[in-house]
Amino acid sequence: xxxxxxxxxxxxxxxxxxxxxxxxxxxxxxxxxxxxxxxxxxxxxxxxxxxxxxxxxxxxxxxx
Length: 64
Hints:
The protein is of the alpha+beta class. The protein has one domain. The protein is built from 2 helices and 3 strands, in the order E-E-E-H-H. Strand 1 and strand 2 form a beta hairpin. The radius of gyration is 14 Å and the shape is elongated. It starts with 10 loop residues before the first strand and ends with a helix.
């Protein structure tokens, strides 16, 4: 088996409710993940500050 070309080292910290912070490679500051709009409404979550969801990032990555 060959040696992996890359291993991602990511740390995720949950702040409260759906708000999480991810420490990602090449990003100087933690990146927020949360909920917004219809997703917050679907889960019945009140959001003070909306943030992109994990799904938003997955879709953006697949489209890139």
